[in-house]
Amino acid sequence: MSLFDHELAFSRNLGWLTQTEQTLLKSRRVAIAGMGGVGGTHLLTLARLGIGGFHIADPDVFELQNFNRQSGATMQTQGQTKVQVMADMARDINPELDIRSFPEGIHAGNLDEFLEGVHLFVDGLDFFAPGIRAQVFRRCAELQIPAITAGPIGMGTAYLLFMPGGMSFDEYFRLEGETNERQYVNFLVGLTPSSLQRSYLVDPLRLNLAEQRGPSTIMGCRLATGVMGTEALKILLQRGPLYPAPWFHTFDAYRMTYRRGKLRWGNRGPLQTLKRHLGYRQVARLLGTPAPVPEPTPQGLMEELLALARWAPSGDNTQPWRFEIRDTRHLVIHGFDTRDHVIYDLQGHASQLALGALLETLEIAARARGHDCQIQRRLDTPETTPCFDIRLTTRDSPVPEPLAAHIKARCTNRFPLSRKPLLPRDRVALEASLGAGYRVIWLEGRDGLRRMARLLYDNAYIRLTTPEAYPVHRQIIQWNSQYSEDRLPDQALGMDPLGLKLMRWALGSWRRVHFLNTYLGGTLLPRLQMDVRPALGCAAHFVIIANKPVRHLDDHIAGGRAVQRFWLTAAGQGLQFQPELTPLIFASYVREQVEFTRHQPSIERAMRLTRELQGLIGTDALESAVFMGRIGYGPAPAARSLRLPLAALRCD
Ligand SMILES: Cc1cc2nc3c(=O)[nH]c(=O)nc-3n(C[C@H](O)[C@H](O)[C@H](O)COP(=O)(O)O)c2cc1C
């Protein structure tokens, strides 16, 4: 075993520290409350800085949900007490450390002991522990101990220093007399008055106040410890300048921004009061939103496969399938279409494509687990309710199935994407995914995108002004939602909040829609936001063409299978994807003379649209076109459709 040499171990601090300062740090003692995401990392940071003594407190043990950010959380330390693990890690860095552990955590009864003889207090307490936090800071002020709080906020940090004789924690945050929920708000708005992180919080529902957990990143924790270590050095070595409270500091790596400001009246100032009250309202709303119910763990192979397969896409998230598990190897899928009430499915093609996607997904999921699916459509069931027998057989040697990894991540993105052209390797992978029997027509470049934008602008006019489409639009949107199990959440539609408000109002009655359309150019805003902007904002539009005309139910099902391979491949390549099927649907109604509306102008517009589409891809190709959409690079959408729970989809 190698011997420890204190001087050598910390010699690389020298230069930024003098030898005298390094020696002084060895004699300093720091109290850290909390050994989790920040507290644990704070301890290791200060140990490497050469601080010689610590008081550490935390009553918890390491658990799996700590792994994303807590320095001590590993497979080996699961279930072990945080103070013990962290003390061991710190002593591994400096065996001469003098560490006093408080494995019961801190409370009013041991506070004085915890703070006895310390030169600095560092806050690593849980965000949801405002009561004890206020108590420690109060006692630090009484004992003239400087205190630092540096929290991970998003992908950045917000921090405050409380120095003896300066503004106190209580004066700054004003927590006293407030409910727990209001104390959370006060702490957050005081810590981050500029709320830099708000703009990139993609899933606010992950903040669960009832269960006292929120999102947190390792980057935030590491940045927090970086600023804490620096401020600790300045305080302990009496270097300046310091900017203690009422100064606040935020550094956000994601926004690449540092903000420093002064809240002369702390949270009592007029702007902070306004922010607090907005925060209270938001918290009340959050507490009123039911937390997502976790899905039960699937029982047995068939349930496991279906739990994945049900993530297949379907028009307007209708999920036109129900599952009957006959036994461990035999499943019956009862499909249906929505032609009786959905104007976009009058021939059942959209539902059939979705069923094809479901079968493909099931087969991919099965293959990934070493099984083959034998799929047989029952020929005696009507076209409107196609039924499939699926029998599983175990493979002798499993084959890799890379598409399986993307089944749940694949989703629809209706927002503008980057215009960066498709990389050749992505194009090749996409075309190959379709297999023999299909090809792709790409519409890209300035001209291609513009022509598609024009086509979709015209197509949207039909969608928005045809009376028979109105009940569908009214029914498929779940308002004020980021997620929906059986419809489209409004936040996934690609419109901005004002546009959504207007649309919601308009969809309240057909009279409103008609009035807006007739007198106020009501189709313009949705057409620009939901059609033109995304049509111009993508790498390319595509049309998937079969090598023979698609007529029969089985052609659409086979087409749906190819589409799902294409879509999953896109997801695997990091591409975003949106179907644009309605032009093909209207063109099919025109060709096959399906009476989709009594509104004569819509029929005439559909005929014009069909000619426009023929001009874009050719008359023969249109007869064999299976699917259309757009594709491009960009971030995944924050809002998306979910699926009905498996129990609701089962009919056995
Ligand atoms: C056959 C079919 C047609 C679709 N047509 C459209 C469309 O025209 N426009 C659109 O934005 N999304 C369309 N979608 C996407 C669905 O709305 C989406 O798949 C469904 O809501 C589930 O959401 P997810 O794909 O995000 O999981 C279509 C999907 C399928 C399978």
Tell me what you see in this structure.
This protein is an alpha/beta fold and 652 residues long. It folds into two domains: 6-288, 3-Layer(aba) Sandwich (Rossmann fold), CATH 3.40.50.720; 300-649, NADH Oxidase, CATH 3.40.109.10. Helices cover 41% and strands 17% of the residues. The protein has 23 helices and 20 strands. The strands form five sheets. Strands 3-2-1-4-5-6-7-8 form an eight-stranded mixed sheet, sandwiched between helices. Strands 9-10-12-11 form a four-stranded antiparallel sheet, covered by helices on one side. A four-stranded antiparallel sheet has the order 13-17-19-18. α3 (39-49) crosses α9 and α14 packs antiparallel against α18 (524-536). The termini are far apart. The model has no long low-confidence stretch (mean pLDDT 95). The site of flavin mononucleotide has 20 residues, from α12, β18 and β20. Flavin mononucleotide binds next to α12, β18 and β20.
Concise overview:
With 652 residues, this protein is an alpha/beta fold. 41% of the residues lie in helices and 17% in strands. It has 23 helices and 20 strands.
Helix and strand layout, with pairings?
Elements: H1 6-9, H2 19-26, E1 29-33, H3 39-49, E2 53-57, H4 82-93, E3 98-102, H5 111-115, E4 120-123, H6 130-142, E5 147-153, E6 156-162, H7 169-173, H8 180-191, H9 218-236, E7 247-252, E8 257-262, H10 270-288, H11 300-309, E9 321-327, E10 330-335, H12 349-368, E11 371-377, E12 387-394, H13 424-433, E13 438-444, H14 445-465, H15 470-476, E14 477-478, E15 483-484, E16 488-489, H16 497-506, H17 510-519, H18 524-536, E17 540-546, H19 553-572, E18 575-579, H20 582-591, H21 600-617, H22 619-623, E19 625-633, E20 640-641, H23 646-649
Parallel strand pairs: 1-2, 1-4, 2-3, 4-5, 14-16, 15-20
Antiparallel strand pairs: 5-6, 6-7, 7-8, 9-10, 10-12, 11-12, 13-17, 17-19, 18-19
Helix pairs in contact: 3-4, 3-9, 8-10, 11-12, 12-19, 13-19, 14-18, 14-21, 20-21
Bound molecules: flavin mononucleotide (FMN).
Flavin mononucleotide is lined by residues 313-317, 350, 353-354, 357, 411-412, 414, 488, 578-582, 640-641.
